[in-house]
Design goal:
By secondary structure, the protein is α/β, with parallel strands linked by helices. The protein has helices at residues 12-17, 20-23, 27-61, 64-113, 116-121, 124-163, 168-176, 179-215, 217-222, 226-278, 284-325, 390-394, 420-426, 441-445, 457-469, 495-508, 525-538, 551-554, 574-580, 582-599, 606-622, and strands spanning 347-354, 367-374, 379-383, 405-410, 413-414, 427-430, 513-517, 543-547, 559-564, 567-572. It has two domains: 14-325, ABC transporter transmembrane region fold, CATH 1.20.1560; 347-572, 3-Layer(aba) Sandwich (Rossmann fold). The protein is 63% helix and 9% strand. It starts with 11 loop residues before the first helix and ends with a helix.
Length: 623
Amino acid sequence: MSVTSSSSSLSTFAALWRLKPFVRPIVGRLIGGAASALAAAVIALMIPIVLEQIVQGPIKSGVFGLLLAGAFAVLALGLGEAAMVWLRRWFVLTPATEVEFQMRATLYARLQNLPVAFHDRWQSGQLLSRMMQDISLIRRWIAFGLILLVVNILTIGIGAVLLFRWHWLLGVIFLVTGVPMWIQGYLFEKRYGVLARRSQDQAGDLATSVEESVHGIRVLKAFGRGTHALRRFSSQAETLRETEMNKARSVGQIWFWLDLMPQIAFGLSLITGMWLISIEAIELPQLFAFFAMATVLRWPIESIGFLFSFMLDARTATDRVFDIFQETNTITDPDDPKHLQNPRGELAFEGARFRYQDAGVAERDLLDGIDLVLRPGETMALVGLTGSGKTTLTTLPARLYDVTGGRVTLDGVDIRDLELSELRRHIAMAFEDATLFSASVRENVLLGRAELDVHSAEAERVLREALDVAQAGFVDTLPEGVETVIGEEGLSLSGGQRQRLALARAVAAQPKVLVLDDPLSALDVDTEALVEEALRRVLAETTALIVAHRPSTVALADRVALLERGRITAVGTHSDLLRTSAHYRHVISSLEADEAVRTGTIPIITDAVAAADAQNRDEGVQA
């Protein structure tokens, strides 16, 4: 989705002033660059005055020595101007890249700190376009556009004053013919700013489409929907093209006035100058110098349109970047954090409630008062029908989302009272949809062990233990073993391989609490059995909450919690719940049916369910 700027009501100056914290360290270099550029402009403005003296003296007198001296003076001024232009670039180019680096690093850190709820609302293409295109544009404007805009405006002002040096009427003509340009510039700013924002937002949407189609290329090919994706992309690209054309028309209109009015000024000045010469108000060398000065001023005047559009593009880019900086981070460290010196791993949900940010007012909470306690070292299976809130519940212990009511505690301490870094050292997660990074197998598995040198003997021991538990020995058959760099998101691996590496990553973190959201769904039956056997050893000393989507996962648990319409309606052993809960039997039957479809086998728990029903009937008869 495109995200509208929340700061569009700010003036352009106020919007760009927000860059001050990033620019402050290099302000001295920027001043040096501006001073160099202004010196170059002043030198250029001196050349017409020197030419006037040459025409007035050496050319009129015909003295060759004086003429040669005048030529060398003009050459020296030209070389001085070139030196100042070089000095301007030396002053600003490297510091501007530092600003770009700092903005990118700050924005990346901000994206890492913002909660999952923020990333639910934002398209990755929009974030990517801000990170790359917008910050790069800001850097170019700071290094080039800002300095030239200030210097060229000053140059026009100084040059306009100097034009009065020869005759006030010529100066007035120059100023009056500039009025339409300033009016058009004001209208241009209003019109172009809207188009610039629309264009950059549409570019972000287009980037999102490219990213989605690349990541989903297997699906598109499998369903033969490549042509459909192309039509969608072409439609978005055409919309962006139309916006860019509107921008070009807007720039063309301002350029029309910037090109037309100087021509009119030259024509009026020529006619007026000839009249002034005829009445002997000025002399020919003065008129020559006037036109030389006007010629020097022509580029600064014509550049104003481009520099204004550049400034508005930079303002829009700044708005887009600060849309992210101004987002409220709702999941933060407490002001006065508590600490767990020797955590036991007791995880408790106390009246925990949760609803997503886009839920309607009339909708009930997705988690509607969860009360559940996991004892230290206990393995708890969480079962429920689709949509009951199982996956959402697993996001709460590590504060991927915060409860909207009640609380979650670790060893009796509200997890919101713990620093996030400490909390996430104690609680690790493995998701059903395993996400890996474009890094080596070693780096992926040891992601949660920042305190280890990944190439140390201790890291090697942890790595091998985790890979053994996850039955991920396949990594040794990869081209470079555990040093093999896996492809983007691990798509070069099978689904089961990705899940085993994700599980190994969670195990390697050696947490006190392990939260697993059906981490074995992509494994074959034999591998799953081996992983479950190894997990039993790991979970002997670790508190675990496992979302169960298959009957075999339930067998790992000491107890089972039944989630029904956002509430825990029953807790007990598997056999107890089979005997006492009709809804649990229904859920297990559903899991069995899904498992039978997946494996082509006959459900194995149906007999237990039938036995439990028979026992209930017998007990009823005896009563």
